């Protein structure tokens, strides 16, 4: 393939953009590039920037917080720490390096000009730490170019002097900054001082915002694009995304070239990991990658067969064997030529890759405010040799040799003995496409050297780029000026993100203390301006998103700029009200996102002990090296990209003694594993098992103790770390396991929102959801008749047997809907039954159905109703259940892809994923207090039903709760509109088959048999009761910011054990609490009762039980009950899960202070349904119901199984609802009631 060559104009444009904003003193030192920033389009005269509607004109750049009159460079050069002059720095070397940033398959590989040698500092081979001094500071005062800051760790005041290009950094009061470099005493001040100049030290603005190296390397062309890509993340959409490799994902997220490139990446990484480069091995890897489920899925998406895919990948992989022969080994070979971008023509370098450290290593750097995922991290040996002469080749040309001298192809260099040989760590990046983005690749690789240096603690002064098409390896040295410019770009981008929506702290001078409404347009702006280049913008993959934000959020009026036509094309269809809708909801999503960002930075701003006190970390953990995962568990993972390795951690002896159950972390939660203070997020994954003393995690990377020991100074001197020996080093490695705040979902939610507003988006739903256009309905006769559609009538008749009038009306309403219909059903009214019937009718009519809800339990309950038990046989239609299989109910896991035989062909995979008419999955949701108050508490159901009540069908006859339990919700919530569907339901009671066993057990206790509180609760006549714990007493306690009640948990345990002794089966009992910590406590007590479901209120939806026991937890002298107890939607869901018996444990004195709960107690008092427990009630049945203590032996704790609150318990088959005759009822005009009804399903 002929090389792609960049013109000098293209090269200059890239470097000009990269160094845009630097002061004149820098550019005065060399003639190129020009200090005047050129237009982005060489052929277009740029018009004046458009303005917002609010302001007739706006400045070209944001008003910086540090600004003085421009000082001529000559004057500045006389000062200390002045900008470098040509005599201070080898500018020829710098300029030559920049000039060599050309096409990697063209002249760069064959330098034609003779260049003079320069002296370079070689990478250090010292194993000592090379970590730069990093000081985290908060800006307290700003005067001219001096910042007075407070060092976070030492709390002392210091001075930061910004000079040269750094002077333009937009820093504001209260901003967090990192200084990279040492502070020293100042002659004119008592404060320690650091000078940030072009020649020394660095400043990182908003270091907690970790930007990817790819985003920064692509930013010189447009600062706006990478920020928008971060905000709006798409999987399968018309708006592509950009991954951390800098690859633009077009169309539906895939293209053939991208798929082949990804597969080739994986093949080469497999070769590196196994050290095998033979043709047979490479072919085997290709077949495995293409034939995997993930590989076949990609082929289905791009419409390519397996044979063609194998052929394409083999064609691209034909250079891998040669790569292994030339570059893999302990000593560099003559043919292992390393192209050096800093070479002066008299030097050649040879490369040997001695050892692979890791692949796909995700590294966080809160020091530099960077993150990145490296293709490979390698140990390299580099020899630098001087070229002495050239001689003719005696044989045919060696096509595998990369040694090129001038234009001659039949001459080979004579090399002098090696002048240097260096062992070094290096990032190794694999580039499978044409090298048209070579300039960005180098910038990206330079930043990766910073990341790798911080992770490994060794000097990393250059990176490696391997281009599979040209089969050349390029060495990218890290240069101070380029890194400084890239950090400047990063700071500018972080400045926009850190500024947020204009809600930051006070700004400088006259702007200090202004509110959002008073701030100027530049202060409110959180995205850079558009570059206004018609050609570039027209080809950009985020143009739809960019123009949408410009219109709806930034409110730009533009009829004259070069992109005015594009702007009109993309946004001309939007009305002002539609723009306001997008702006409002986008801001609410951002509020939700802020919490995730805040928690994320705790990983490096808080120690393990402090974060564990808050329930978001396990500290003082050591790796159990004797743990061996069972083989059958490995098989269940199949092709998981995250769960690659399984490890067990236990508490360090002599360390923290608190239970691991005390915190926000539960089974299934995302985590990362770190070693304090420098090795952050070594591995990521999720919790597999959790007990009070140990945690089993599944992670994406191997935890290599030898490398970690070396990095933290626990490696014996003399151990061969480069050779991979384990060493005899001792020392106990102490890990921390942190809850990982994954907020990528917010970008997906934004993407879903944005698609309503795109010019090629879903116009009909835009009108329905945003404009509230009335829904359309067909005319359907609800009763089958000759005039009705025969096929529809037959389907209705087939699946409507047993439905009451309300339910049949709901079915007809849905079938008549052209847009949407809303079914408003109170608890127990048969929503699951009617939904299942409607789905069956739709499938019978040849329709496909997407079934979704916010919770796994709700989705799986409906699937259970549709499919019945597995032993019942084939359900008659296909179902595909998507999602994390660990969170899918065991009864319906047979519908997941994981439960099926792995597909080996595209046809098989297409059959598995395309033929099922029913696809079931959960949808994303957000839940932030401020966001709810801003409007996110208004559900889509409520918005549509209030606007168009004619689209709503009511269900009022319930078939779940007996009359006593129904009375609670009916009086407190539903205004007596709820009705029992039959007399049988109304009189329902829980009968204990072995009641005598419970009664006889009292002979062994200190309580009286007749008036025993436990005996009263077991009575058939006790159907709804509040158990008051005030006299026991049972006080709540705090574990960090979590709330629990140990005595109340023990009481719940005793009631559950009594029910089980009386003959009630485990799957008839449900235990609910609003508090996650209480769920874990009770789950630990009932560890042997695996079929007793222990759930939060949210996860209990659809999980009806004969007996429900609720633990209210809150009991204190201050009357503190928290927001959860005040949330009556959750309370209503909890109450209405019970069919025959509802037992509520709590403190009346604490709970009755809330108005609605006060009404609850008045009702319970009036019915005589309050039972006051005597003092020490939890100790009365200790001889019979053991485990009155939370303590237990290590042997017992090893067997503990905690039921996750977000995973419904296993074992209970889902039973069918009883049906009966219905009466009509309405809930119109009661919007809050409607939401409560919907949430109570």
Descriptive notes:
This protein is an alpha/beta fold and 1241 residues long. It has six domains: 134-205, OB fold (Dihydrolipoamide Acetyltransferase, E2P) (Beta Barrel), CATH 2.40.50; 209-226 and 251-386 and 419-502, no CATH class; 529-603 and 743-773, no CATH class; 608-713 and 732-737, Beta Barrel (Elongation Factor Tu (Ef-tu), domain 3), CATH 2.40.30.270; 777-970, 3-Layer(aba) Sandwich (Rossmann fold); 985-1187, P-loop containing nucleotide triphosphate hydrolases (Rossmann fold). It is built from 42 helices and 40 strands. Strands 6-7-4-3-2-5-8 form a seven-stranded mixed β-sheet. α8 crosses α10, α18 (576-605) packs antiparallel against α22 (744-755) and α18 (576-605) packs antiparallel against α29. It starts with 7 loop residues before the first helix and ends with a helix. The model is unreliable at 1-5, 21-129, 235-253, 389-411, 502-521, 717-729, 784-788 and 1188-1241 (pLDDT under 50).
Summarize the structure.
It comes from Jaapia argillacea MUCL 33604. By secondary structure, the protein is an alpha/beta fold. Strand 3 and strand 4 form a beta hairpin.
With strands numbered from the N-terminus, the spatial order across the biggest sheet is 6-7-4-3-2-5-8
User: How does the helix and strand content classify structurally?
Assistant: alpha/beta
Total domains, how many? Answer: 6
What fraction, in percent, of the residue positions are helical?
A: 25-40%
Outline type: globular
Distinct helical segment count? 42
* Arithmetic mean pLDDT: 78
Unreliable runs, pLDDT <50, ≥5 residues?
1-5, 21-129, 235-253, 389-411, 502-521, 717-729, 784-788, 1188-1241
Q: What value does the Rg take, in angstroms?
A: 34 Å
Strand elements, count: 40
Residues in β-strands, percent: 15-25%
| Biggest β-sheet description | 7 strands, mixed
Give the N-terminus to C-terminus distance in angstroms.
Answer: 62 Å
